[in-house]
Design a protein that fits this description.
With 409 residues, this protein is α/β, with parallel strands linked by helices. The chain has twelve helices and 20 strands. The two termini are 40 Å apart. The protein binds adenosine-5'-diphosphate, aspartic acid (ASP) and magnesium ion.
Amino acid sequence: MLYVQKFGGSSVANAERVFNVARRIADTYWKGNQVVAVLSAQGDTTDQLIQKANEINPNPSKRELDMLMSTGEQQSVALMAMALQKLGLNAVSLTGRQIGLRSSSTHGAAHIRSIDPERIYSELERNNIVIAAGFQGVNRYDDITTLGRGGSDTTAVALAAVLEADFCEIYTDVDGIYTADPHVVKTARKLDEISYDEMLELASLGAKVLATRSVELAKKYQVPLVVRSSMSDAEGTIVKEEAKVESTYISGLAMDKNVASISIIGIRNEPGMAYKMFSLLAKRKIIVDIILQSIGRGATKDIAFTVTKNDLPLAVKLLTDNRTKLGFEDISYDDRIVKVSVVGAGMASHPGVASMLFEALYAGGVNIMMISTSEIKISVLIDEREAEAAANMVHDRFFTGSAAIDARR
Ligand code: ADP
Ligand code: ASP
Ligand code: MG
């Protein structure tokens, strides 16, 4: 059998954990399997590298930042190969380029274009354990790219698809996927199974247990995943096409801290204003999420919307520079907000989910700044200081105690 096993940063954070993971890989190998392990950088190495870059230049070129960030994974794969060699096994570490991972050109957020697994196959044929660097590839100019934060998950799933692996295991610091981040919501429950679609929604709304793109790829190539702990033998959560239905129609709660809101006050109440504003941002590849427009009163109206925290400075600059052209009165922003979302495919056929959410927030005295809904999710923007308490209250409302009965089918 061929296993792809991915180990995240906390799972390889120090020498002891590196050996813990090495023993797990060795166990799989000794049982007669082939193993391709994909690793992230150790602990918070990636954050430290970004910090280092900022000390030199607060606005570094994205190419050089990728060059620097990718070294984190290169360290951990070399160390893991050394640990396995110490255990008497043949292991070889490989970079993104060596595993043949070709990506698009967008530094910092590159998409995987193709993987040529020739080198991996030849190493496996020689009975080597392959330790592949996650998160990195090379673009058509042969420059190193990275796949966006959490991108080692994406490398692992892509490799599992290309190699037609029998198993794709994502090892992390929690023992599965929960109804909410178990580090924030104490009463979060572990799920046995979850569908690709629901996991996709949770991931894109901020549940970083799996990178969004890794779930997209898993769905596209029908790669069944298991998310489990590198520190225990507890059974994990299976992510697949059709998951068995849990007793509630809400599958989970997600929180996204990477949001900021911008308010444009007193924009002219006439056709084309939204187009002029948002095309300005789109040209610079700024993704706009929730948009709120007030009902025009007389000559003016207001528009508020959200972007990621990283895009905030550029978005504010573009709008401010074009203030006269756009003809608005004032601009303000807020980056101390959090988006809390409840997700569930069963929500579409159940009225009242929104009011349960609002009721839980009202009971906790939490003010809602913006609301956005789709068929399978409702998101609210709230003050970051209230985020943890709100997440717990909302989760309890839907998942625990007698109040949660309303949410059962
Ligand atoms: P790794 O370094 O292994 O990739 P990450 O930190 O990227 O780990 O992802 C694991 C973390 O995701 C957990 O520690 C947990 O805090 C967070 N998380 C957020 N939402 C969930 C959820 N619904 N279920 C499990 N973990 C979650
Ligand atoms: N080391 C990278 C990050 O911190 C990739 C990963 O952990 O998956 O985002
Ligand atoms: Mg991760």
